[in-house]
Structure formats: structure tokens, C-alpha cells
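Input protein
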Amino acid sequence: MSLLPHDLFDVRSLLSDEERAVQDAVARFTDQRVLPIIGRCFDDARFPAELVPEIASLGLLGATLPAVHGGAGMGAVAYGLICQELERGDSGLRSFVSVQSSLCMYPIFAYGTDAQRARWLPSMARGERIGCFGLTEAHGGSDPSTMKTHAVRHGDDWRLSGSKMWITNAPIADLAIVWAQTDDGVQGFVLEKGMAGFSVEEIQRKMSLRASSTGALFFDDVRIPDSNRLAGVKGMKGPLGCLDQARFGISWGPIGAAIACLQETLAHAKDRVLFGRPLAATQSAQIKLADMARRITTAQLLALQLGRLKEAGAAQPQQVSLAKWNNCRMAIDIARECRDLLGAAGITTDHAAMRHALNLESVITYEGTETVHQLVIGRALTGFNAF
């Protein structure tokens, strides 16, 4: 049996029939609907909103949530494969699905009331309402404990003031999950578009995630009814629990980006003739391509085992950190190496490598920088907190 260049250990054979069906469906969507337009979307700094109904119809929004709440009831590995195939197209699309599913629908499901679940989740699963997640602040970055956004109770309402920065989906969102300091610790609130004092500003001039919609959120004494508060959690464990869900998907997504770069570069190396022979026939190219395949295979096995642990309820945050750190580093290194092998042509968006490399500069940064995840593992190993 011949081996696939991007799956040398036949990891696909370890998947269930349902998981393979999910992967194939999303792969077809990526090949037929995403890849023909995504380079131009990146050039034009435009999120392809026209794809949202199709993404929703495939059951990719809130995919792991129960059907009663609009989800598809998929397992963790199936969700990981969704992220992998979407990011094979572009990180912007995977980010959109990750934010909608893990950072917005998940906290409503996990921390909200039955009434809140019924009010928002089904329409979010259908893509009729788009969400964004407001945790990061301009001054805070990797240290959310310095949060300045605050909410004060006024009878049956809350008054929210502050701002959030680098918020994926913000300019297109109908609602925002916003975390704020209160007299009773950090709490989450669902803000809806059009609330007085709630405004959004789109972030321009990005050189990364250009096919994603990013913005800043501003709250000027916004009145929020207590029925919009996520009363099921208090403290930083609320938003951090959401981030663990998102980081799981991010540990799979960059595998797709790396596979896209390897496939493109391998085809180029076979066709490109230099000094009388194909580039692929040189030792230097073969060593680089072999190393890419090694790192992709390692990342696939790491993500799959993390998924099985998550499905068994045994995954630890440190394991999620290790997978996110390893797989993002793997992918960005491969994207840069592929750009080099593509030569001058590699700097254009006619090829995928440069676009993925630029996107991965954000992916390796958000949901915890590489350094943060290294220190999470260091703390687990030594018992000392070096933050």
C-alpha cells in the first residue's frame, strides 16, 4: 500500500467511519468552495461571509453540542478534523468556526440557563446569529487577570464599562460574550448588537488573518439585564474554560495549514527543473520535505491522542498547551520552509505558503502565546510558577 505524503503513519485508519465521513465532507467543502476564493479574500482583507450558511448546513457550528441545542453531537476528534480541514483552506475560516463554537456557544451551553440556551444556541448553530468573545484587553494581552472592564449591579440590571481588543468576528457579530470584573469576581455577560453604549471598531491594516473579521469592543455604561448574565460560573475559570475548548481546536487546525503547504511544495518540487534535474531530486529538497512529513505525522498523532483523552474526560489543560505549542510551531516552521522552496513565486498569494505563514503568526500568538504554553509545561514539570 502506498503511503500518503501527509499521512505517513496512516493516522486516518485510526478514525471511526463517522470521523472519516466528517473529514471527507469538510475536505470537499474546502476544496470546492474555499480554495477557489480564499487567496483573493486574503488579498482584499475580506471575510467570505457568503460561506457561513454552507458552514452551518454542514453542522460545523457548535458541532459537539447536543442536537437539542442545535449542535450535531459530534465527538472531540470529529471536531478536531473539522478544524484541520478548514484551516487547510485558511486560518480565518477555522477561527470563525472556533470562536462561534468554542468561545461563544460553549459558554452559553456550559454556564448559561435553559432559557439562555433556547434563546441563542439554535440560531447560532444555523449561522443566523454570529458571536464574538470579549476577554483580551489592549493593556493585558497574556495576563487577563489585569482586566479593567467592569460591571456594577443596578437593581435587575448591570452597567458595563471598558473595552476589549483583538476580537475575532467582532465587526460581523450579533452578540458578544464579554467577561468583566464585578464585586463578586469575574463574570460573563451576553451583549447584543444595538445595546446603547456598545460599539465596535474594525481593526484595519492587518498582515495576518486578512480573511478574518477582527475588531475592538467598547462599552460606555452599557445596561445589561441580569437575564443576560452567565450565572453558572464566577472567576477566571469561566473564560479559561472556554479557552481550553478553543485551544483544542487550534491544536488540530495548523496541521491542515502544514498539509496544504507540503502538498503544494511537493508538487512544485517535482515540476521545477534546476541545473538539469527536478528540485525534488536534490538531497537538500528531499531532506526538507522528509522533515516536514515527520513533523506533520508527529502532530497528527499528538492531536489524535489528545482528542481521545478529551472524549474520555481525561484531557488536562497542560496537555492542551503542549499540543497547541507543538503543532503551531510545527506549522509555522513548515510554512516558512515551503515558502523558501517555492522561491520567488512563494511570496504571492497565488501559492498558499506565504498566506499560511502570515496567518500562523496570529495562531501561534492567540489563545496563549508559545511562551505562555512553554511556561505552563515548565510549571507542570517543576512545580514552580514562573509567570
